[in-house]
Amino acid sequence: MKSAILLPIAAIIGATALSSIFIVDEREKALVLQFGQVKQVKEDPGLGFKIPLIQEVVRYDGRILGLPTTPVEVTMLDDRRLVVDAFARWRIANLVQFREAVGAGGEAQALRRLEGIINPAIQQVLGSVDSSRVLSEDRTALMNQIRDIARRQAANLGIEVIDVRLTRTDLPDQNLSATFARMRAEREREAADEIARGNEAAQRVRASADRTVVELTSDARREADVIRGEADAERNGIYAEAFGRDPEFFAFTRSLTSYERALQPGNSSIVMQPNSEFFDYLGSDAGRGNATGPEVPVTE
Fold this sequence. Notes:
Blueprint: H1 2-19, E1 21-24, E2 28-34, E3 37-42, E4 46-49, E5 55-61, E6 65-68, E7 72-75, E8 81-92, H2 95-102, H3 106-126, H4 131-135, H5 140-154, E9 159-170, H6 173-245, H7 247-262, H8 280-283, H9 285-288
Antiparallel strand pairs: 1-4, 2-3, 2-5, 6-8, 7-8, 8-9
């Protein structure tokens, strides 16, 4: 009878003892709550104890967490609008303060509260500078300002903001088409300017080449005329010397040349009388040869 009574009691005591022990992982932090009030903070990994059935353990992530913010539209100092989103790194720094701030919502509620802090900080910092500074590569100072503002405000939630980084800075969708059209027009204008400059340079090169061709052609023609004139003068000199030595032979060769040029084979015909002046030389004694001279044998 005693064994039958002691065994259930021992089981109840054992279950109660086990339910009073909890384990905190090295990646976690824990709070022991009693009727909603914080009774114990457990931040180090290991075993912890609580009162069974009265106290409960609430666990939170003790690691560094990330928050990708939703895109927010910001009007810059130069009246340009940009769509900006960021990525924040944060962790729970004060468990009691964090529990009091977010309640039972836990980390999900903390993300919503933290985003409500970071987005206004982005608008405040970026709205005070020109868009060129935001779009430049050197914007670390701006991100540090956003981080400092978010860190001061998130401290009331028991959260430490470690870093904030801008991940995207784009134009709004309604401005993209107009911006692309303006960029396309600028590129087309630059292309037209380059084409015009290229055509102008080509015209200069072409004009210079044409002028060079004309100059070279003129020089060549002048030299050719000089050479031709000198050749004609030399030829005339030779003819004059030959004519002076034997005028009769010169007249004879000139007549033969005239006959050769006039009596060419072809479709044309020339009708002349035998006593025409064209044949005067052949009809003369000089053309028939000297009768008293030696006869030239004819070979058939």
